[in-house]
Amino acid sequence: MTRSLLLIILVIVSTLILFETYAVDLWLQDLFFDFKQQVWLVDRQNAVLKFIFYDGIKIAYLIALLGLSIALIFFRSHKTIKHYKVGLSIVLASMICVPTTIASLKAFTNTPCPKHLQHYGGEYPYVTVLTAYPESFKREGSVRCFPAGHASAGFALMSLYFLFNQPAIRKTALTSAIGLGWITGGYKMLIGDHFISHTLMSMEIAWLIIILIKWAIDMLFIHKKRGAV
């Protein structure tokens, strides 16, 4: 636990240093923007793509969250639910805590999206999460683009890794969740809503939260078992 926690913290710090030092975000995001036409590679108004990669995934996520909550509350005595109770509890807590934490960080960081930047026809100067806005820049309200919120739903499902015992299934669950997070995050990059660092940081923070949740729930169930003896 301690080793995993220290490792992910080191990864998060390294990621921040990398993107604060080098303009990787701008270099990559330029590939998704047509400067002549002043449009992004994917049209955010495309209803089909919006449903597949945004609204549809949100709906499916909420249904899964509701179904899991019902299972753990009303069917907790069922043999299968009892067998996977610890793992399901980790998944449920992660599905709630990861997006909630990411959403809170978005409000705190006040970092603009690519679509907001003057570089892409917007009104905001380019600033990173650790740099301040120029004193000459007057802004109204705040922007909420760092870390990536939508992708956090997919990354929350990395908690499925702790639901299973078989290494092959664990690996499949983890890679599938990472893939879902990057598919949704990639869509948001293509429409100008996020830089790659926003999605990468969302993934790393999600894993940090999941590790902490696993530790807390493991401790809770160990304490309950000792109390029942």
Q: Mind explaining what this structure looks like?
A:
The protein is mostly helical. It contains 8 helices and 2 strands, in the order ααββαααααα. It has helices at residues 2-21, 24-29, 47-74, 79-83, 85-109, 150-156, 167-190, 196-228; strands at 33-34, 39-40. A two-stranded antiparallel ribbon has the order 1-2. Strand 1 (33-34) and strand 2 form a beta hairpin. Helix 5 runs antiparallel to helix 6, helix 5 crosses helix 8 (196-228) and helix 6 runs parallel beside helix 8. The longest helix has 33 residues, at 196-228. The chain starts with a helix and ends with a helix. The model has no long low-confidence stretch (mean pLDDT 94).
Extended strand count: 2
How far apart the termini lie comes to 26 Å
Shape: globular
Q: H/E series, N to C?
A: HHEEHHHHHH
Mean pLDDT: 94
Strands in their spatial order, largest beta sheet? 1-2
**SS-based class:** mainly alpha
Number of helices: 8
Over the alpha carbons, how many angstroms does the gyration radius reach? Answer: 20 Å
How much of the sequence lies in strands comes to under 5%
Ranges where pLDDT stays below 50 over 5 or more residues in a row are none
Please bin the fraction of helical residues: 55-70%
Sheet with the most strands, sense and barrel status: 2 strands, antiparallel
Strands, helices and their partners?
Blueprint: H1 2-21, H2 24-29, E1 33-34, E2 39-40, H3 47-74, H4 79-83, H5 85-109, H6 150-156, H7 167-190, H8 196-228
Antiparallel strand pairs: 1-2
Helix pairs in contact: 1-8, 3-5, 5-6, 5-8, 6-7, 6-8
